[in-house]
Amino acid sequence: MSNKTTAKASLGVIIGNRDFFPDKLVGECRSDLMAAFQKAGITPIMLAENETKLGGVETFGEAQKCAALFKKHAAEIIGVLVVLPNFGDEKGVAETLKLAGLNVPVLVQAYPDDLDKLDVARRRDAWCGKISVCNNLYQYGIKFSLTTKHVVHPSDESFAEDLKNFIAVCRVVKGLRNVRIGAVGARPGAFNTVRYSEKILQRHGISVVTTDLSHILGAANKLTKDDGSVKERLDVIKAYSPTGRTPEDRLVQIAKLDVVLHDFMQEHALDATAIQCWTSLQQNYGCNVCTSMSMMSENMLPSACEVDVTGTLTMYAMQLASGSPSALVDWNNNYATDEEKVVLFHCGNWAKSFLPDIEIATAPILGTTVGEENTYGALAGRTPASPLTYGRISTDDTKGIIKAYIGEGALTDDELNTFGTRAVAKIANLQGLMKHVCKTGFEHHVVMNASKTANILQEAYENYMGWEVYHHGAAQ
Predict the structure, then answer these.
(1) 413-427 residue pLDDT tens
(2) What would the mean pLDDT of 293-309 be, rounded to a whole number?
(3) Could you tell me the residue range of the domain that residue 122 belongs to?
(4) Where does the L-fucose isomerase C-terminal domain lie (predicted)?
(5) Domain final residue, candidates 122, 154, 176
(6) What is the rounded CA–CA span in Å between residue 70 and residue 100?
């Protein structure tokens, strides 16, 4: 699956310095960093060499200059990288971050010493300095992340991976603190499982915009097949997926609904949606909304069914971490007698990145109660083998918190003869995971993403958002 995140990220950069260490180390550091940033596609916001001693930060006055620069670019900066070419000044780093007030993730890096360069003229002592800087950040209440290795040169491959993952953490944190989710319709009466707290979400920067389903369906019913907007969306739908045996009049129904949902999202500047489906749409409008939801998710505007607001929030978070679409799935069936495999399923709303054999079809299970002719718009397709990150964000209203679980596994090519959108997942200690899901009150819905991003999500959720996280399979 292709990575859809292409925009350059801007990082604030603080180069720590201490006057009794060689100044030339700061100058060399700038050159090392620029090479690493160019490779990673990062735009640095950092002091010029002539603004302070080689652009480093040591004194309170230098901290003020760096903080002022960061404030000037606050709208661009998604994270801060603290670099220690030598021991650095612990207070200078902490004061800069305090004065800037950015409230963004911080990554702390320190240079390694060379065994043959431990003389007074060339030693760094950044191993020790990093501990002091982190101690001060802890005292100041500033959250921060660490590189994989305690000390690492910017040219090291592990630092390149650290930078890439840190940028992903920054994307997740920035996105979650500002996300706007549209809740279309009421929660289906039979689905207590998707209840959530708007108030707890709002406390964490997550806004929910509600609208009645009748408003959406009423606006859709006022459109005709001859309206330009309907013709335009019909063309988009036909270009998106083979339509199979779906009648033209049902495709028009789907297109009309798609127009109104598109307008609703634009009017309220929404990043994601959760839409009532089961069974009001079929009974009162005559089609499924799965195709529109799939198109939105494919275009990085995730959409979940059954008004699962925290489900679509999870989709959005995973999308931010990986740069690729997510899908809302049911933990649905055992896979024969294999205790580490599970069937993932939904009527058919997954982004087509998961469905190489995508086709617009019907929802046979739903059709048994509302008439299959009223369920056109569901998608059918099988997800092939790929990496897997899975997880779920929920509000725990009794505790007044947001909690989550995450983990990694693999999607497989095991035989699966059924309908809808479907996949087989292999997860180590799946039985233990299901015990956790059941005992801690999580939903039957989970989110999948074709990536390995559980560590990124844990760092964003737990360290920066302050959420309670269970990472399945991780060392505890």
Answers:
(1) 999 999 999 999 999
(2) 98
(3) 9-176
(4) 344-471
(5) 176
(6) 6
